[in-house]
């Protein structure tokens, strides 16, 4: 966990949230993920992107004005809003990992299948 946290802090400096601990007891979602919702509330974040939607049910998020979205839906939506930027970032990610766009799409197909289809269309 130490390496993971140090990588997050290094690459997501502007997204790091602190000072939310006092809100943890106020949120009612799954106890294992209350810190995530509390951080979102504290930072006025409107969307939580997560594979674990069952720990972020609407009845727990609605009072805070927050929604939870699966990463597949989020990425497809992001592509619809900013297709050139997403295309650039996906191509850069493939290059950084010494993979082709096809290979990256195959990797992503298991977790974000709709977005993987979007990526496969980028090469045409």
Radius of gyration from CA coordinates: 17 Å
The helix fraction, in percent, is: 40-55%
Taking the alpha carbons of the first and last residues, their distance comes to: 40 Å
Total strand segments: 2
**What spatial form do the alpha-carbon principal axes imply?**
globular
Largest sheet, strands/sense/barrel: 2 strands, parallel
Uncertain residue ranges: none
Summarize model confidence as the mean pLDDT: 93
Q: How would you classify the quaternary structure?
A: single chain
Concise structural overview:
With 124 residues, this protein is mostly helical.
List its traits:
124 residues, mainly alpha, 2 domains, two-stranded parallel ribbon, 2 strands, globular
Describe this structure in words.
- This protein has a two-stranded parallel ribbon with strand order 1-2.
- The chain starts with a helix and ends with a helix.
- The radius of gyration is 17 Å and the shape is globular.
- Helix 4 packs across helix 5, helix 4 (71-81) runs parallel beside helix 7 (113-122) and helix 6 (101-108) runs antiparallel to helix 7 (113-122).
- It is mostly helical and 124 residues long.
- The chain contains 7 helices and 2 strands, in the order H-H-E-H-E-H-H-H-H.
């Amino acid at each position: 966990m130490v390496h993971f946290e140090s990588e997050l802090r290094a690459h997501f400096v502007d997204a790091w949230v602190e000072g939310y601990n006092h809100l943890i007891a106020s949120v009612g979602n799954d106890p294992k993920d209350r810190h995530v919702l509390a951080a979102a509330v504290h930072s006025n974040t409107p969307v939580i992107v997560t594979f674990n939607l069952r720990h972020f049910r609407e009845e727990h998020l609605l009072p805070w004005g927050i929604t939870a979205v699966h990463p597949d839906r989020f990425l497809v939506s992001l592509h619809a809003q900013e297709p050139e930027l997403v295309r650039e970032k996906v191509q850069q990610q493939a290059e950084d990992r010494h993979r082709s766009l096809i290979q990256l799409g195959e990797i992503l197909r298991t977790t974000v299948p709709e977005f993987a289809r979007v990526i496969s269309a980028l090469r045409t």
